[in-house]
Amino acid sequence: MATFERPLxxxxxxxxxxxxxxxxxxxxxxxxxxxxxxxxxxxxxxxAEALLERIQGQGWIVQADLSAADGAxxxxxxxxxxxxxxxxxxxNAGIRTEIPIEAEPDVWQAAWRKEFQVNFxxxxxxxxxxxxxxxxxxxxxxxxxxxxxxxxxYAADAMAYGASKAALINLTKSIARSFGADGIVxxxxxxxxxxxxxxxxxxxxxGKQAAVSDIPIGEMAQPSEVAELVAFAxxxxxxxxxxxxxxxxxxSYIR
Length: 255
Known about the structure:
alpha/beta, seven-stranded parallel sheet, Rossmann fold
């Protein structure tokens, strides 16, 4: 790419959940636009290493367990030790747990706590550290991977997922309103169905029509579409996106 086609040149960007389908697509897109991604993984070290190789080693990998209460703080410390300046954070890591209302109270609470720990608390902790860093270094961008589920509600057995994503959207808005004057931009991206391994498992069980029945365009989003939107939101030229929630759902939820 020519220089004008690499709008993220010189930026170091931390991406959580980076070894999965959407995360890997984000890392490859960011690298293609000139950034040096910091690839966080939980267990799949070989996947993270393969991803780093695909971007010609132009980045770093770091392990962190975001289901642990102090996982995000340890991740930030390790990531900050890799480079002097972090310019952006993409809170992409997430889980989806199914827990019926018939579950025993201790099982119910454990499922909700784990869902919120990974999907929201870890992201909030990283945002806290990123905000302090960005304020000290002239600004930065946070992209929080939310979900259509956080806007319109979700299935009965996965209410924790929708609730955690709704909290993430609200956190993004609060950051945008509170820290925009410090040169900090916060954006949420809210995909609907994305064609990942989880989606393929659903299709194998229920069929494609069940997955796309309420999507007017009749197709799921591709990970590359999400990645392109993330990269766009991270561009220094897009400061006016601050506070936005960008929908990517084929028209299945329209505000």
